[in-house]
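Much of our argument rests on the idea that a fold can be written as discrete symbols. Part of our work consisted of pairing the sequence of a single chain with a tokenised description of its backbone. The amino acid sequence and the backbone structure tokens for this protein are reproduced below.
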Amino acid sequence: MRNESNKWAQLKADGAPPNRLDDGWAYCPDIKSLVYTGANGQLWLFDVEKNSWRKAKSSPPARTSMGRTVFYDAPRKRVLIAGGGRLDAWQQGKALEFRELYEFDPKAETVKRLADAPTAMYAQHLAHDTKRDLWFAVAVFNKNEQPSGMFAYDPKKDSWAEVKVEGGIPPHRSWFGWMQLCYDAHRDCLIGKQGDGFFAFRPK
């Protein structure tokens, strides 16, 4: 695929999946493709060089589909697939499907379930702290539908832990919210957006 510098170009290819609410994708350099997840539960692969779509051989359960997000885990050459489910169903009871985490092996195109998260994830941002090799997430539920807090996933141990934060996590002006989060390796800190506010946090 060629594209002129400093100019957006639409990627047009036949056979694309339906673009629905709260889809997500991430680039996987190992297969030079984008891994896409949408509301139908099926994983799709977009080959950037060939400009073509196809279904992946394996996908997580369809119940974890809407609001599911994907992230490339560079040290382990895999894609992490986080949360998702029926629209707004996280408000009803425990809704444990929203806590599910999977790995997608891009070469074998297999899916493996990993440790469940401590809270619901819907359009959740997982930020990879490359210095500590931890994945962080922040969630706020002012009505206590789900646990609120800052959580860290350790990929080496396949385990989650709550991060004890002095003064607590930033509030959200709505009753719920998943922090948009990324890691700034230059300054060794997490940068997050909660509502219309921006915040920085350096893990211990």
User: Anything to note?
Assistant: The chain has a mean pLDDT of 91.
